[in-house]
Amino acid sequence: MDEVEPPTTQNNSWNQIKEVLSMPSITDWLMVIITFVYVIATIFICAANIKSAKATRDQLAESKRQFDEENRAFVTVTFDIIRSGLAVLCIENHGKQIANNVEIRIAPEFVDNMTDEGSKVRVQELCKASFTLGVDRKWYACLGSHIELGKLSEVPLTVDLSYSDGLGEHKESTAIDLK
Hints:
By secondary structure, the protein is of the alpha+beta class. The model has no long low-confidence stretch (mean pLDDT 84). The strands form two sheets. Strands 4-3-6-7 form a four-stranded antiparallel β-sheet. It is built from five helices and seven strands. It has helices spanning 9-22, 26-70, 108-113, 117-128, 149-152; strands spanning 75-82, 86-93, 99-106, 131-133, 138-145, 157-165, 168-176.
């Protein structure tokens, strides 16, 4: 039979080195902890980037909406008395785009209350018409003379405008109390 050599000091040292190398050391555990912290931090950074991208997208949409609002056609209607007593509606484009397909609808109660038949016919024709209004341009519609204002003021003047420009369709509504 073969005899087994008794362990030597050199053999024991080598076995101890192998054991130490096979055991996780403190630096290994530190690397695991650092990697875990790095993964968590990366997740938080990604979440913050997603929130930032959403806020940027919302801000861009709001900027576009404001730009479109600032640069669109904007048609208004006002009541005025001009040229020594003519009662007129002044339709004006205050915007920065040409207003196309401008349509005006005056409340039928107001039109029925008009006494001058010529003015009534012109207003009814106006309500059937469609026209284009340039930038900073005005268009007047005669309602009659200021003498008839007492009769006209019995019913509020309600005007609905619809028009389009390069940015879309728009509707405005105005109620004017002639009293």
